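G., the chain you wanted modeled:
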Amino acid sequence: MRLWTFQSIQAINELNEQGKLVVKWERYKHSALERAYRWMRTQMVAKGIEMHRNAPIWTWHSCQAYKKAPTLDDARCLLSDFEIESGIQTIELECPESIVLLSSYAAWNNILDRFLLEEEFTDVSANEMKALFEVSPQHYTELDSIQATLPFLDKKWVVDIRALNLRPNDDNYDPTERV
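Predicted structure as tokens:
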């Protein structure tokens, strides 16, 4: 399955040196994000994805069009300008479908907001679960993106690593152009 992820230079160095990138829970220790990500990890395990002790790695399947790569605009929705200018890279990968959990980015943000705002939030309704995990070409909308979570990223899956194109968007902008 073709996916893309935004990663720091440090993460890319780890991937190159170790042959695998994993996210450790210490990165989110004692935060609402840790609770939310542990909830998503539980969903991955329930779908039969072996997580070991890792936190999920977030990737993209489709951004504003089915199977379209993310752009600088997508990165700006997630990252600060400081992070982007510090050298965030886009990793394009081809990984086994068996370890991927696809979900709606919009539905996830609704659930994530509740984790961030409600200290004891854990109860996701059946309708929210359906909205979160019912992603396919038939259910896709241009107003949403499809994200994917993985237990780790293997160097063997890497198709390309490229810098984000920091040029202003214009009619000739090509998000896959190498810089």
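Residues 2-163 form one domain.

Shout if anything looks off.
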